[in-house]
Amino acid sequence: MQVSATFSPFAGDEQLLYEWIIGQSGQAWIELIQTSFARGDSIPTVRKQLDKLGLESINARFAIAQVQLQQRAARKFSGAAKMLFESQLLEQATDERIGRYKADRFRHAPRIIDYCCGLGGDLLNLLTVASSVTGVDQSPLACKLARFNCQANQRAVEIEQKNAPSIRQVSNVTAGFTLIQIAEPPAVEPLI
What we know:
By secondary structure, the protein is of the alpha/beta class. The protein is built from 8 helices and 5 strands; from the N terminus they run ααααααβαβαβββ. Strand 1 (about 110-115), helix 7 and strand 2 form a beta-alpha-beta unit. Helix 2 crosses helix 4 and helix 3 packs across helix 4 (about 55-75).
């Protein structure tokens, strides 16, 4: 069964826009917009500033939308201002507090694979407790964001774009909102 994509005002251009926003130029525009919002400038004022500076309209709208997503994400991530988001992936992302709790449960695991890693919410915490962590997602955009967000938080991670195996194909699985496979799992204390 195929799931229909969510509406995006940037449909068709979204992949290119994410490539741009991840780059040095896009990041410079993000910083400028963050500064404008921090001093209380309205969106129309910021749009006029960006237009005067020569930023294409679609890029300006996309960069402003990213800063707005960063502001929403600040409820989930302390480093949100350095990260990049997509609306649906942000909604699905595990916040830091829950992520720390989940990661702590795997603190002795030598290798962790986070299937359906999304934009990297769990990865950020798993990377603090395991020596080897791999993020896997079938979405090219999710992989791109997970890699960027981990790097933005000074955490090196391996990201693979592929379908997650079915639950029957994975042994020693802990399931939650994300499937996390532990290769050679240590003994885990029961919750009760």
